[in-house]
Amino acid sequence: MEDVWNRGGRWKPLPDKLLTLPDDKDPPDLEFYSGNGFWYHDRSYMMVLNYSPSPLAPRKHGPQLDTEWWVSRDGLKWERPYRDVNATGSEITRITHNPMVVDGMMLFHYGNRILGMKQDRISYVGSRANAEFSTVPFTMPEADLCLNAAIPAPDRSFAAEQAYVMAAMLDERGQGRAGLRGPEVPPPEC
Predict the structure, then answer these.
(1) 20-58 burial, b if ≥16 CB within 10 A, otherwise e?
(2) Whole-prediction pTM
(3) Is residue 25 within 8 Å of 83, Cβ to Cβ?
(4) Which residues does residue 100 pair with via DSSP β-bridges, in sequence order?
């Protein structure tokens, strides 16, 4: 997203320290072929096409391996938390523009079709066992705040007697009290 880097009038390529490169967890010769980032709420997302060279096509890049979601808080330094999840499980295999948000759906123009997903499905956290997750500080919205959780996860119904969620809202001083807890919480209306 060179526009993020250049919006301060720098008008030059990104410095090397901001480049995201394949690492030792990636296959040899992995190539981040293409990706267009877009902003959504407080971060940016990018669906990146991963390729690898092939000895069968020495003058061309290799076949597409998979498609990976990347996330960034500032549009410059990217994290790859979903590197083991192939984003092409959906019909959307390449995003070329910002999504249109209509009636709770993120819609993407793709060929001669409009494809999309529920707008609260672009990010998630999960855990196989006890875990703790925190958000960055944010201003409370005027509307209701909804915690969308699958407890237990749909593929782990056997954990019904063990699964729970606890949440705490803290003020600017870090003060607050525990709130939600597992099965006693009524289903949300959002």
Answers:
(1) beeeeebeeebbbbbbebbeeeebbbbbbbbbbeeeeee
(2) 0.61
(3) yes
(4) 107
